[in-house]
Each structure stands twice: as C-alpha cells, then as structure tokens.
Amino acid sequence: MASLQEQLLKAGLTTKQKARQANSDQRKKNKQKRSGVAHGATLQEQVKQDLAISKADKAAKDAALNEAKKLELANKEQQLRIKQILEHHQLKGVSGDNEYNYTFANKVKKLALDSNTHKALVNGRLALCGLNETTFIVTSETAAKIAELDSSIILVQNDKVDTPEVDEEDPYADYQIPDDLMW
Hints:
By secondary structure, the chain is α+β, with helices and mostly antiparallel strands. Helix content is 51%, strand content 16%.
C-alpha cells in the first residue's frame, strides 16, 4: 500500500515540492514537541516572549543604574554644599596659647586657640567640624545647619553651659573649679 502522499502525487493533486515542504513542516513540529518548546506556544510566540522578558530586564537594569547615578550625584552635591558652608562660615585668626583636644578620624588632635574662642567652644557657642582631614571652627548655628545635612561632619558641639546653682552652705562655694582647667 502506498502512502497518502504517494497516492496524491499519482493522482496529480499535489507536487513533489509541496510534499517535501509538508514533510519538512511535520519534522519541525515533531522536533519542537520533543524539545518541549511547543507546549501551546509556537516558536515565534516563544521568541516574542523571550524578547519581551529581555526588554523588561534591560529596562529594570537601566532604571537601577539611573537611580544609582542620581544618588551619587546628590551625595556629591551635598558634600560640595557642606564644604562651601564650612569654608564660608569658618572663623579665622583664632590661634592662641590655649590648647583644645578633640578626636578626628579616631585620632586625638590639638588645636591652639585664644582664650575667648576656647571659652566659646567649651560653652557651646562655637563648634568644630571636620571634612577631608581639615578642621573648621564655626558658630553653633552653622553647625546645626550642617548637622541637618550630615551629622558625621560635626566633631565637637558642646551643650550650652548654664551657671550651676551654688549651695549656700557649701564650704567650697568660693573655690569653683573651672571647666577649662588644663592639667
């Protein structure tokens, strides 16, 4: 018995070219079924889905990169703003004989100040700020503005010292210990 294709060829209802094409299509379909590609979706649909997934992944990566660049740019702008504030509002010409010790980058540093600046720093009217291995002396208001931007820049900002109440019966009331006592 001859196959249906052979019978159609003998009857003249089809050509050899169409028969080969039909065989080729049939082999492709069988191969797709064996490879698991065609579970209700053709090869073209699978390619479209893969393309859509890759486009979505690329868009997500691009969005993440853009967000990272925006954050980096914002950090740079903030650092430049802080540097500008510190350079503009720093106190100059305050060197003197009194030493003030503070920590900067886990190191104890000394700063030679005049007596008025030293008292103002101890009493909280002035503050020390550090940026890029440089120490700046600024007012407490400027330090408060900088603390809003980045509190790690503030090295020393003392609370304002009020005069303590003296007990009338204290035998040592006349001998107050100064808070800027140097040993």
